[in-house]
Amino acid sequence: MERTLNLKFYTLCLIAILLFLSSCGSRKYTVRSDTKAAKAADAMANLKSKQLYKFITDWVGVKYRFGGLDKNGIDCSGFAFLLQKEIYGVTLPRISRDQANVVKRKSIDHLKEGDLVFFSFGGNDIDHVGVYLNNGFFVHASTNRGVIVDDLNLPAYQNVLVKSGSVN
């Protein structure tokens, strides 16, 4: 009887240990910190201006609409126009190439939060604008994806970047 009791006790202990060990080995899901989305999230988290953070989060996902200037659709220059006005109190021209004319040129290495970046996707003229955030990321109204935080270091942008700088 005592031997049967000891055997049951050891069996229960063994089962308890196995259950404990198997629970410690359960699969953990983690977010890789080197993904594009994680890096964009880091750029947003590192913004100095909480007003800028709120402005961007309110607009992210709004679809692109040429000439648009509201949440029903917005274009790149309209987005830069509204952001500069609401966050920095600066009134820019409405068209991206005109916005580029009022910007004091800066190298990419010296850009600060709120500076503008200009692109030429269609040839020689500036036809796209975004707002620099930090760590190589910027926010813009993409024709395909709407308002989005994107990586300025992607070749698709590096190859067409024509000007960057600050309004003041």
Q: How does this structure look, described?
A:
- By secondary structure, the chain is α+β, with helices and mostly antiparallel strands.
- It has one domain (35-166): endopeptidase fold (from Nostoc punctiforme).
- The chain has six helices and eight strands, in the order αααββααβββββαβ.
- It has helices at residues 2-24, 36-45, 50-59, 76-88, 96-101, 155-158; strands spanning 69-70, 73-74, 104-105, 116-119, 128-134, 137-142, 146-151, 161-166.
- The strands form two sheets. Strands 3-8-4-5-6-7 form a six-stranded antiparallel β-sheet. The protein has a two-stranded antiparallel sheet with strand order 1-2.
- The longest helix is centred in the N-terminal third of the chain and has 23 residues, at 2-24.
- The protein starts with a helix and ends with a strand.
- Mean pLDDT is 86; it is low at 18-31.
Question: Helicity, in percent?
Answer: 25-40%
CATH architecture: Alpha-Beta Complex
Reading the helices and strands in chain order gives HHHEEHHEEEEEHE
Output the radius of gyration: 26 Å
Kindly name the structural category. alpha+beta
Portion of residues in beta strands equals 15-25%
CATH fold type: endopeptidase fold (from Nostoc punctiforme)
The CATH homologous superfamily corresponds to endopeptidase domain like (from Nostoc punctiforme)
Unreliable segments (pLDDT under 50, ≥5 consecutive)?
A: 18-31
Number of domains: 1
Mean pLDDT across residues:
86
| Biggest pleated-sheet summary | 6 strands, antiparallel
How many individual helices? 6
Q: What is the strand arrangement across the widest sheet?
A: 3-8-4-5-6-7
CATH level-1 class = Alpha Beta
Shape: globular
Count of DSSP E strands?
8
In whole angstroms, the N-to-C terminal distance is 90 Å
Keywords: Hydrolase, Protease, Signal, Thiol protease
Protein name: NlpC/P60 family protein
Family: Belongs to the peptidase C40 family.
InterPro entries: Murein_DD/LD_carboxypeptidase (IPR052062), NLP_P60_dom (IPR000064), Papain-like_cys_pep_sf (IPR038765)
